[in-house]
Amino acid sequence: MLKRMTSILLIMIMMLSVFIIAPVSSASAASYKDNIINAVINNSSLWYKSSFKYGSVMGNCTFTFLDLNMDGNLEFIVDTAGGTMRNTFSQAYYYSGGKLIKAGGGENTDAGEGYNSLYGMDYYYNKSTGKYMILCSNYFHAYYGSKGAYGTGGNFELIFGGKNIYVKYYSAHNVTNGVNSYYNGAKGYGNTSGYSKISKSTYDSINKNKTKNYVNANMKSVTIDLNNWHKWSTSTKKAKLTEAYDGFSVSKTVVPTPNLNKFEGRPEGVKLYWKAVSGAKNYRIFQKNGSSWKAIGNTTSTTFTDKTIKPNEAKTYTVRCTSANGKYFTSSFNSKGHNFKYASTPTLKSAAYVKGGVKITWNKPSGGVRYRVFYKNGSSWKSLGDTTATSFTHTNGTIGKNYTYTVRCVSSTGKNYTSYFNSKGITKTFKK
């Protein structure tokens, strides 16, 4: 019985205590991992109890690493447990400020109040809010009596408020003598007093609605049984702790990949465009620097202007979705990127009468490879045509009408504007 219990207990968190997770220092991720692993080893006398028992039942302990406050660094949680189902020792610890800190709560307490065991656990991502959520369950059968199974437990969420963490039950499922009963909440492990009994269909509906508009972020972790901790060498301890630390992951591809679909040369630089991604909260824009990508900005909109590019420069760009706080990538990205060559605004030289119409000429701009000529005789610009030369003749105008002309650089395919344009233009009365 104890073997079954301890095999499903991954982590212990005290229901009756709220504990603080302090901000992580600015040390690198590698240094942080080394620091927390060393703290676990050097302070094992704090959390590891190599021998304890209640009656004739021996205890054991397990641990895992989780990113409890989603700051990109993991905290250590240890589960020490022993005793009988109704008389259990339990304790949780977390890592903060270079130390392991006891979460608080009672020891040698009734299992109904002493702890919450976390299993059936996973991270979810809310596309509406851009936030992560951890859901857990702690239901298991305690024993089988002459009239059937006895069991108790429930489903709850780890709630983060600032730097605090606590649990909140949203449904519970108990079994007494083989008879199932369901509740719309619980006060703690197995304690449903004050909550209403509900039908199985309502119970299922509550659980289903809890993850509505969420996607599973596929959390993975490694939990180690520490019964032989005192027998392991320091190198073995480090190896096992490293395995557990590196075993944690959360999917970072929970929304579709954004794709750049338009570039526009502006006076201040190049403006990038992409379609909105369902569920995305923020976007991070990257520019290729040699063989690696360099982040150049963040935005909540679907456009971004790179003001660092210079005329005749070619740059490669890509974009990726991030979480609302910008700490996690929530999509993949186009690893090839999209190349863009920026051109300076063409300088208009003249609009002169020639046989057949009006000839517009301009100086060759830096970075220009193809040009689109525009005219207007009202308030809006209309395209006359493209050319790779630095002149263009307007042949189909209305004699006697005034036309204003301008020129803008376009890409070799004609898909994107690679420069801005002279918005005042140059005006000429059409004649042949």
Describe the protein in words.
The protein is mostly beta strands. 12% of the residues lie in helices and 43% in strands. It has helices at 2-8, 29-42, 44-47, 111-114, 200-210, 234-246, and strands at residues 12-13, 19-20, 53-54, 57-58, 60-66, 75-84, 87-91, 93-96, 99-102, 116-117, 119-126, 132-137, 140-145, 148-152, 154-161, 164-176, 179-183, 197-198, 214-216, 224-225, 260-266, 269-274, 282-289, 292-299, 303-306, 314-322, 338-341, 348-354, 357-362, 370-376, 382-387, 391-394, 402-410, 426-429. Strands 2, 11, 12, 15, 16, 17, 18 and 19 form an eight-stranded antiparallel β-sheet that branches. A four-stranded antiparallel β-sheet has the order 7-6-5-20. Strand 13 (140-145) and strand 14 (148-152) form a beta hairpin. The longest helix has 14 residues, at 29-42. The chain is elongated, with a radius of gyration of 33 Å.
Give the N-terminus to C-terminus distance in angstroms: 101 Å
Tally of helical segments = 6
- Label the structural class: mainly beta
Report the biggest beta sheet as strand number plus sense, adding barrel if it closes.
8 strands, antiparallel
